[in-house]
Amino acid sequence: MSKGAANSRTAMSKPVVACFGEVLWDCLPRGLFLGGAPINAAYHLARQGLRVVPVTAVGPDFLGEEALRRVANWGVDTRFIARLQDRPTGTVRAALDDAGVARYEIARRVAWDRIPVTPRLRRLSPAPAAIVHGTLALREPANRAALDALFAAWPGALRVVDLNFRPPFDTPAVTNRVLRSAQLLKLNDEELARLAQRPRLRPAELARAARDIGERYGLARICVTAGARGAGLLWDGAWFWEKARPIEVRDTVGAGDAFLGGLLGALLAREATPAIALRQACRLGEFVASQDGATPDYDISKVLAGTA
């Protein structure tokens, strides 16, 4: 067998992860940056050897062309990033108020608000081992129906939800919907406090709050990030905690998406135990927070070894 054939077979044997949701450009005072939680997660999953399939849409404009070019340069499959002719590529504009506080305006009626699910996508082989999605892309009924179609097409895929509250689209109806369908939930301590109807949660209260939410929604696996304090993982009744390591923070944008990528990369690509997966997710999240941007270049083995 040739080396190329062997490499191709190795690539085909890797688990597939589908990332459903928004791809957009953050229009910040310092420039334009490709983003969206699902596409950031796709980057980090690909860096860990998983086959990643972003399921999203861009418009017939320069921003759409550039998004496709950058994702392709990551070595990520772009077949199911649709090019819609009647909607622009998504953007988020940061506006500063008189006090200098940023307010984010997420454009409406953009391409990723109407993500198509084609017969070719439904027949994807091998079927994904996991479907990763958030809540923002479910602000329109068309995408809620599209995600349901993927659940039906891939019944064995682990349903992973990254709970990102983005006002005014964080409605109780959408939140309840995703929590009741999720099989692995990732959220931060502020989001957990909101679900628990508490103003804030002390570190010692995170485990109990996660268990309460798990019981309420029938969720056995919940991951809670708590910034500089660390992160916890409720996994089939057991609670694991990993303390954060001190770092010099450069840019926290995308650190949570890197954390999720690290967690799934450890579980699916490296078949790690939940405790080890949590530890490795923390190390990757810390590394990304110490770098500029949400998708820095890195070698995951060096990150985990502390030599990156």
User: Could you give the distance between the termini?
Assistant: 34 Å
Radius of gyration: 19 Å
Strand order of the largest sheet: 5-4-1-8-9-10-11-12-13
* Strand tally: 13
SSE class: alpha/beta
Number of helices: 11
Strand proportion, as a percent range, falls in 15-25%
Percent of residues in helical segments? Answer: 25-40%
| Mean of residue pLDDT values | 92
Spans where pLDDT lies below 50 across 5 or more residues? 1-11
How would you explain this protein's 3D organization?
It contains eleven helices and 13 strands. Helices cover 38% and strands 22% of the residues. The longest helix is centred in the C-terminal third of the chain and has 16 residues, at 274-289. Residues 1-11 have low confidence and may be disordered. The radius of gyration is 19 Å and the shape is globular. The protein has helices spanning 3-13, 37-47, 62-73, 119-122, 141-153, 172-181, 189-195, 206-217, 255-269, 274-289, 300-305; strands at 16-20, 24-28, 31-35, 51-58, 81-83, 90-96, 102-106, 130-133, 158-162, 184-188, 221-225, 230-235, 238-243. Strands 5-4-1-8-9-10-11-12-13 form a nine-stranded mixed β-sheet, sandwiched between helices. It has a four-stranded mixed β-sheet with strand order 3-2-6-7. It has 308 residues and is α/β, with parallel strands linked by helices. Helix 2 crosses helix 9 and helix 7 crosses helix 8 (206-217).
